[in-house]
Design a protein that fits this description.
The complex is a heterodimer of chains A (about 80) and B (about 500).
Chain A: E1 4-5, H1 11-17, H2 22-28, H3 36-40, H4 48-54, H5 59-68, E2 72-73
Parallel strand pairs in A: 1-2
Chain B: H1 3-25, H2 30-40, E1 44-45, H3 46-58, H4 66-76, E2 81-82, H5 97-126, H6 130-143, H7 146-163, H8 168-191, H9 199-229, H10 234-247, H11 262-270, H12 277-307, H13 325-338, H14 341-345, E3 368-371, E4 377-381, E5 384-387, H15 388-397, E6 401-406, E7 411-414, H16 442-454, E8 459-466, E9 469-479, E10 485-494, H17 496-500
Helix pairs in contact in B: 1-2, 1-3, 3-5, 5-6, 5-9, 6-8, 7-8, 7-10, 8-9
Classes of the chains: A mainly alpha (about 80), B alpha+beta (about 500).
């Protein structure tokens, strides 16, 4: 079963649930994720959606790279 | 409303904004402009203001006035700009530090998006039009004042985050602030270089600035603010507000004074911040750390006790040497032995030498607290007596900025004559001194303090050009009357005028 990635989950929760997501975030430029002290603090307020917005990455591009890594992106309708 | 009417309305609003801005720009009465504004609009969108600003520039407004215009915007539209990030009504009050910060971010964003980047593009396309280069230079110069925005954050907000155990984010963010300061300095240098470097080099520098500044605004508003809102109290914001004006603002007028209401403070007391997961966890970590420190302190206590003579006035917090007194005594002895008489004679003033304990003097009277005839406390030093009021007055008037860091490397006190070279805020008192410096100077500060602790060095000095003045900064190891390390005194001084002194001005000279 492919794991679902929720773009609005906090990065802190996400990394606990799906540690394999870390390289994708680092690729996005969200390298704070590799610092445990940052992950525990700022990570509770950062989401993939916010990260994409901050780094000016179009959402569909982010979705594509997450899917390319073998995950599924949770769709909120 | 039909599309046509909507369109008409938008055009009308736009016209009114331009009218108000123009009126202000031509030196019209601020109150009158404000009155027109208030009766025309209940609120204005950021995009409306920025497009009005563009319209004004298009009608021939001198672009050199952009900063002035920004200030005027800030004043007239204060609190009237709708912001979809609205979080908390209190924080939207005029003068609240969050409001001031967001307003600055708004202006900075507009400066980048509506002036710097369009000018850069037009300059590249125009080939030879220097008018755009002039505007680029002006915009970059204005952007350099972002230093105030960052300095306020670093000196008022970061120490409080640190206090609540949120230590990593301020450190990381301070590093990025410094990087941005560097990028802006580089861009400023490039556009003012003769001959002018390649256009693409300038473009790359400006784009790097833009990207980092915009990203920092996002981090401040979307990550830092929600994070600190979980822990900061109304009093915390009051402290931040009270210390902000001295540091200054970026491209906005000084905000109205703001203080938390009694009700807001009472609310914090009655209903302590719903200690969220983050704070709870951080508190645990902080307490564990504090416990460790206490343990370390207790372990050293017997030794410390022995040296803390009962005549010493210093509060207990001061007398906590953290290294083995034996090792230290040895090191001090070695250090002193290493000091040749020539070196000592070569301009080491008497008062920089270590405490007199090593050179016993029968006449020496230890400092003590005594009560004068009218029952007021005074401090009796070896060379005389000062009342607390006198001491306070002396520190206030001393033409030096002093900061004292105690034996545990925590900031204990700073003098304040109202205009310090480097901002110091009450929030730093009690915080680890290394957290009060940009990360890039962390290692250097740590090294100086370690050397002071170990007794291998007892002073360090630097002089730097800082915002157009020559700042002379010295650090001294302070020892108590028994020669034990008591802390580090930082002495900063604006020596610009002193360096320019020539000839003589004697007491008997004519004025």
């Amino acid at each position: 079963m492919t794991q679902k990635i929720d773009l609005d989950m906090t990065v802190y929760e996400l990394v606990q649930a799906v540690p394999e997501i870390v390289p994708i975030m680092v690729d996005m430029g969200l390298d704070g994720v590799t610092n445990p002290a940052m992950l525990k603090t700022a990570g509770r307020f950062m989401t993939l959606r916010k990260g994409a917005q901050m780094k000016k990455i179009p959402l569909d591009k982010l979705t594509a790279s997450i899917e390319a890594a073998g995950f599924e992106v949770e769709k909120h309708e | 409303m039909s599309d046509n009417q909507l369109e008409h309305n938008a055009v009308y609003r736009q016209k009114k904004i331009v009218e108000i801005l123009k009126m202000l720009h031509e030196g019209g009465s601020f109150d009158e402009a404000k009155a027109i504004f208030d009766e025309t609009f209940s609120s204005v969108d950021v995009s409306e203001i920025t497009s009005a600003e563009r319209a004004l520039i298009a009608t021939g407004l001198n672009p050199m006035e952009i900063q002035h215009l920004c200030n005027v915007h800030a004043a007239v539209f204060k609190g009237k700009i709708s912001d979809d990030q609205t979080t908390d009504a209190v924080q939207e009050q005029p003068g609240h530090p969050v409001q001031a910060m967001k307003l600055e971010n708004l202006i900075i964003t507009s400066l980048l998006k509506d002036e710097l980047l369009p000018c850069l593009k037009k300059w590249q396309q125009s080939g030879t039009d220097d008018q755009y280069l002039v505007r680029i230079k002006r915009a970059l110069k204005d952007l350099a004042t972002i230093d105030h925005h960052y300095a306020r954050k670093e000196n008022t907000i970061f120490p409080l985050m640190d206090k609540y155990g949120i230590t990593a984010p301020p450190k990381v963010m301070w590093g990025v602030d410094d990087k941005i300061r560097g990028l802006i300095a580089t861009a400023n240098k490039l556009v003012n270089q003769e001959p002018l470097p390649d256009k693409y080099e300038i473009e790359a520098a400006i784009e790097a600035v833009n990207q980092e500044v915009v990203e920092m605004i996002f981090k401040e508003e979307q990550i830092m603010l929600p994070m600190i809102n979980e822990v900061f109290t109304a009093s915390d914001w009051g402290l931040i507000a009270s210390e902000s004006d001295d540091i200054g603002y970026t491209l906005i007028a000084q905000p109205l004074p703001w203080r938390p209401s009694a009700a807001e403070i009472a609310q914090d007391a009655a209903q302590p911040k719903k200690v969220p997961a983050i704070a709870a966890e951080l508190n645990e970590a902080a307490q564990a750390l504090a416990a460790q420190e206490d343990l370390a302190r207790l372990a050293k206590k017997p030794a410390a006790k022995k040296v803390a003579s009962k005549t010493t006035v210093t509060p207990e917090t001061l007398a906590k040497p953290t290294i083995d007194p034996k090792i230290k005594a040895d090191k001090i002895a070695a250090f002193k032995a290493g000091l040749s008489p020539e070196e000592a004679a070569a301009g080491r003033p008497e008062w920089t030498k270590m405490a007199p304990a090593q050179t016993p003097n029968m006449e020496y009277e230890r400092t003590k607290l005594q009560i004068d005839a009218s029952g007021l406390a005074e401090i009796s030093f070896n060379n005389g007596t000062l009342s607390l009021a006198e001491l306070t007055g002396i520190f206030k008037i001393l033409p030096l900025d002093l900061t004292f860091v105690d034996a545990n490397d925590n900031v204990a006190w700073f003098s304040d004559d109202g205009h310090r070279i480097f901002p110091r805020t009450k929030a730093v008192v009690g915080r680890a001194v290394v957290n009060c410096h940009p990360p890039k100077s962390y290692d250097k500060v740590k090294k100086i303090l370690d050397d002071f602790h170990d007794g291998v060095r007892d002073q360090a000095e630097f002089w730097i050009n800082f915002r157009g003045i020559m700042a002379y900064i010295r650090y001294f190891a302070v020892h108590d009357e028994d020669g034990n390390y008591a802390g580090c005194l930082e002495v900063s001084q604006d020596i610009t005028k002193i360096q320019q002194l020539e000839g003589e001005h004697r007491l008997d000279s004519d004025d």
